[in-house]
Amino acid sequence: MKKPNSKEYVPYFKKYIDLVEDGNFFELFEENTNQIIHFFSSIPESKHNYKYGPDKWTVKQVLMHINDTERVFAYRALIGGRQDEKTKYNYMDENWYADHINVDHMDMSKLVEEFSAIRLSSKFLFESLNEVQSSFIAHGTEAWFSPQAIGYAMIGHAVHHKNVIEDRYL
Predict the structure, then answer these.
(1) I need a labelling partner for 107 at 20 to 30 A (CA). Which of 22, 46, 57, 159 fits?
(2) Percentage with pLDDT > 70 across the chain
């Protein structure tokens, strides 16, 4: 898959896509997957439930947010990849999702394992798409994406949150 042009996604996601280097998408995706797994696996247990402010997420909540977002992104990529013009996806309220799962009791290793499984599933989806399918624009109620834009946004979104944790949590 090639790096998307700016007409393949809503402007909000430019900040994520811009975090992704040029190169072979599948190599970048695999490298990012390994980087995120290693990063979260190496965070000391004393920081797992830490948050830097009263209305901020814990480190485990950030990883759960990445997991939830990747599931939503994968569904959107499936709509585009199947060139589905009828299905409109909806906005995801990440704070609603975070408020409706308690990760305090969950083990970080399980959240990392979950991330790995989601990424593997997404990899299979992206590998199944040809050039036409990967550039098909799927429309939501408030946004639009091509599957390749979603793939790059997945990488950049994970990088963004890794950077935030490095800057504000560790």
Answers:
(1) 159
(2) 100
pLDDT of 142 > 90? The answer is no
Which superfamily does 8-168 belong to? Answer: dinb family like domain (1.20.120.450)
Q: Please tell me the distance from the alpha carbon of residue 103 to that of residue 48, in angstroms, as a whole number.
A: 10
Query: Contacts by 132-135 with C-beta closer than 8 Å and gap 24+?
Result: 132/83, 133/80, 133/81, 133/82, 133/83, 134/1, 134/2, 134/80, 134/81, 135/2, 135/4, 135/8
Distance separating alpha carbons of residues 153 and 145, to the nearest angstrom: 10
Is the distance from CB of 148 to CB of 8 less than 8 angstroms? yes
Which tokens hold the place of 141?
């109620």
145 phi and psi, to 5 degrees? -155, 150
| Ranges of each domain in the chain | 8-168
Q: Where are the alpha helices (DSSP H) in 2-135?
A: 14-17, 25-41, 59-81, 94-99, 108-127, 131-134
Residue 20, C-beta contacts closer than 8 angstroms, at least 6 positions apart:
3, 28, 152, 155, 156, 159
Q: pLDDT (tens digit, 9 = 90+) per residue, 81-115?
A: 999 999 998 889 999 999 999 999 999 999 999 99
For residues 28-38, average pLDDT: 98
